[in-house]
Amino acid sequence: MTTLATGPDTLTRDALAVLQPGFDGTTAPDWVRRRLGEGLASVALFGRNVVTEEQVTALTAELRAERDDLLVAIDEESGDVTRLDVRTGSSFPGNHALGAVDDPGLTRAVSRELGRRLAACGVNFDWAPSADVNANPDNPVIGVRSFGASTDLVARHTAAWVEGLQSTGVAACTKHFPGHGDTNVDSHHAVPRIDVDADTLYARELPPFRAAIAAGTRAIMSAHILVPALDPDRPGTLSRRILTELLRDELGYRGLIVTDGMEMRAISGTYGLEHGVVLAIAAGADAICVGGGLCDEGTVLGLRDALVAAVRSGELPEERLADAAARVRDLAAWTAGARAAASATVPEPEVGLVAARRALRVTRAGAAAPADTPVFVAQFEPARNIAVGDQTPWGVAAELERLLPGTASGSFTGEGGGPEALAAADGRRIVAVVRDEHRHGWMRSALDTLLAARPDTVVVEMGLPQAAPRGALHIATYGAARVCGVAAAEAVVAG
């Protein structure tokens, strides 16, 4: 690698300041410590960095020993996308469950308790909430991460979530601007495209972001989506029309603009990682999210040097890079000034379970008998998207095994799932757990098989409840967080 930046001069420090990289391990790597001394102002934590809250607290203390005004970011939406509870499942229901309850006060309380926990761990920047309006129920990457399909509902809960989180001194990052809800492609893999007119975008997608701005959101995350009505050539993250002319000039936003993960194929596969980073900063982004996949020192140095080279060649104005770096430092200063708020927050450790219970929608077919003897839990596993990841457990099996000792369980997928589950149940009553039944033909077929043979089957839908309720008892949880599973298991036993 050719290193253009040889010392911690102002240009180099600014180039490092706009990066928000991840790293491997559960302790602070030496290379991260060194770069913090040279100008790196942020780091990002992912599931691989988390074992326990005590370990995260020790990790952030290690990092702040090198730089006290450090932004420690995390992708903690609660619900299906959790990093703090990556090994157990979230203690808080996600957006869709909160939208189903539609009590902004409850949403505010949930995000406040989440913020309290994050702050106690030394995390001061959360890449959440999702303000996407779930206009397309077949969206492969948003789904239950959205508060719902109603623009007004999403707007009021986005504002409440931002207010609750930021009351603890943790900065919110509202995403994915200008709106990722009406897509049928996952931007982790390719460039999604939204082909609607500008009037629809302004009426449907933008109000939640306006509400977040009015609520004081400290950051907004860009989306790697192509919106021809706004910019026919470049996706949001790389579009000056979207980031500067629309978000800054039209909507009047003055906080930090951070990109979605730049190694996602929508950017890296089309523009290249290093060139994409330069284009993003030039378009108006202030901070670069990288590290969900590429999390090594070489990536950080390559991006630093690409930014320095772009300034020296005239491709990137030096004042634009300096402005971006200043916004990162301003956010860090805000979090430092707001830290006292976290210590004043009253803990509400049960608020997540309370919210999950309130979100349940139970449909009975006649007089559904409660489950009072051991059952067989058949969990039908769809492929998970990258945002959710494959580390986090979900379902109702663990809780039903606690409530009904002797309960057994199995995981099934694909066309043979139904007959396999029926055979494994071996005569026991079945609790079938699904996730987005409406999106998976094989899952529908599996339920057909089970219900034909065992009409007393209980169905628990832990994704979007788009399919019609069926089964002796149908329980919609509006998400697959751990507390949603606890609430659903309680409902199975209650009948």
Describe this structure in words.
This protein is an alpha/beta fold and 495 residues long. Helix content is 42%, strand content 12%. It contains 18 helices and 14 strands. The chain has helices at 10-17, 30-38, 53-66, 95-101, 104-120, 151-166, 198-205, 207-214, 240-250, 265-271, 273-283, 297-313, 318-343, 351-359, 397-403, 417-425, 441-453, 482-494, and strands at 19-21, 42-45, 71-74, 125-126, 171-177, 219-222, 256-258, 288-290, 361-364, 376-380, 408-412, 430-434, 458-461, 473-476. Strands 2-3-4-5-6-7 form a 6-stranded parallel β-sheet, sandwiched between helices. Helix 6 (151-166) runs parallel beside helix 8 and helix 15 crosses helix 18. The longest helix is centred in the C-terminal third of the chain and has 26 residues, at 318-343. It is globular. The model is unreliable at 1-7 (pLDDT under 50).
Quick rundown:
The chain is built from 18 helices and 14 strands. It has 495 residues and is an alpha/beta fold. Helix 9 links the parallel strand 6 and strand 7.
The spatial strand order of the largest sheet comes to 2-3-4-5-6-7
Radius of gyration computed on alpha carbons: 23 Å
- What profile does the largest beta sheet have? 6 strands, parallel
Shape: globular
Count of individual beta strands: 14
| Secondary structural class | alpha/beta
> Which segments are poorly predicted (pLDDT under 50) over 5 or more consecutive residues?
1-7
Strand composition percent = 5-15%
Count of helix runs: 18
Identify the quaternary structure here.
single chain
